[in-house]
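User: Can you predict the 3D structure for this chain?
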Amino acid sequence: MNKKIDQQSADNIRALCVAMVEKANSGHPGGPMGGADFMHILYSEFFNFDPSDMEWAFRDRFFMDAGHLSTLMYAQYYLLGNYKKEDVANFRQWGSITPGHPEVDVKRGIENTSGPLGQGHTMGVGAAIAANFLKARFGNWMDHKIYGFISDGGVQEEISQGAGRIAGHLGLSNFIMFYDSNDIQLSTPTDEVTSEDTEMKYKAWGWNVVTIDGHNHDEIRKALKDANAETEKPTLIIGKTIMGKGCVAADDTIFEGECELHGQPIGATGADYTKTLLNLGANPESPFDIYEDVSVFYKELLERKIIEAKDKKADISIWREANPELAAKLDFFLSGELPELDFEGIEHKAGLATRAASSGVLGYLAEKVENMIVSSADLSNSDKTDGFLKKTHALKKGDFTGSFLQAGVAELTMSCIANGIALHGGIIPVVATFFVFSDYMKPAIRLSGIQELGVKYVWTHDAFRVGEDGPTHQPVEQEAQIRLLEKLKNHSGNPSFMALRPADSAETSVAWKMALENKNTPTGLILSRQGIKDLPTKGASSRYQEALASEKGGYLVKEVENPDVVLVANGSEVATLVAASEILEAKNGLKVNIASVISEGVFRLQSKEYQQSVIPKNKPLFGLTAGLPVNLEGLVGDAGKVFGLDHFGYSAPANILDEKFGFTGEKVSQQVLAYLKTV
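Assistant: Here is the predicted structure, written as structure tokens:
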């Protein structure tokens, strides 16, 4: 322990944070200056990782919640050699690897994308669940820790309720979170917006809580030592810190703890940029330098970390030699590969709701895919994830041998936890609720897409046919919202989301196949509450074999030569189109093709020739959707016609709503005839 070098290191971090924001003329300097002491002590004395192998699967992980404190991470990781001087000097600039909010970059130490407050630490909870899940299967040697860093804003975000409750309930003792409590937020002191007792709140959730002086290195050190020794509870370290610690004014007086230091360069506040750098021991002429003594200290630190990691890896090698089968299974989990799966062999009864067909698939997967965690927001018996639960048991405090997470009524929390599970690696996360409640999940869905995570979302009760529950539970606009993400590209240039709405049991099996094979983007399965008549087969092959064409996003479930009209839908409306086509053929002598488009996003990735073969632009096109017409307007074009809903639902039995809204074979056939008169 060297108090002088510890102080120099923390001040170096502060100076770098100040300089980054000042040069960019944009950012948040005050918070990073307050958190610098904790970061230095954590990484220099407690954090276990391999600087020569940053993606080492058994490293400790740091999850930043307060993404606006990105400079704190960049400065710390610059000292650790993960960034170069020009990287920190180009903070927030085009093409830099130091964006305004951290974006997942494991090779440089960034474990998660953060910015929307509350989500970062909740992803950390997910990673802690993943670590415990793997530990229960492979042994106590897998003892890496998950560290979180949260601010006043993150504590205030409602999601902290769900994350705090679940972490405490499960006894996630491998999760240690530092709360940078500086009593200042962007526009006000915290006492203008809250008077809650944060310590008592977390204790009520079952956490171990300690309050310290966040600038006292000995207190930080003891808190981290005790937290690492804790075996029953997650730990919250409330660090009382000072916003803008180290700032001084032009007359050399202290200028700390001010609200204006939160969200703008300190040169635009009552603090003086040059005097502050001098106060912190930096050279204003070269503010991005690492101090000489700090550079020597961190070089020695990195050498020590590599040796410590080498020792840990040697212990793991001994375990591998003693447990070759378990070692092979662990490697398979971490590879992200799937076992051999026979989706065609999953039998479904006739006329199932697609949620029920999904339940059958999940029951099969529970026995075949050992590294899957399924979660439901208090709806497992309704969203039918109980098909999985019946083959395993729920995760519990002290027992992570199960594979089901009962999240309670916390859709957003559950989804963020799934992102954290995916970020940790080795486990496939699945989360489920009613489709209408996807509204609660959208912030996490968006971060799933940005981070390119293979989270699987299961949404049931997919349309107004929820029936008696009425408009609050009947999704009308949700599919349009979700399908927008299929049109939005991620930074790899691919659609950021895959939305699948299967038309019958066979398509549901294929949808699950597509979801599991889609490893680098999130997938949503949109499933019906009510039973759906299975689609007819066109030839001698099985319905599943024909439904495999869904892997192209869309295909013809009914096909004739030179059709008079092509009908387009997805989900349960495809069966309605089949009923309508029977009427149109029998009563009106029309020739009809029917296209089932499970995913427009995937369909648009196919060749123009294939798209034209399914939905020819030189034929009359009629779309049917239980949601907003925009769901299909891009497929049928301006010359086509889409029949959908432009209003909320009503409370009534589903069959009555079908009749009232015009979603019967007879009424749809009349709509088609009326449309054909206009072309």
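The mean pLDDT is 97. The CA atoms of residues 171 and 309 lie 27 Å apart.
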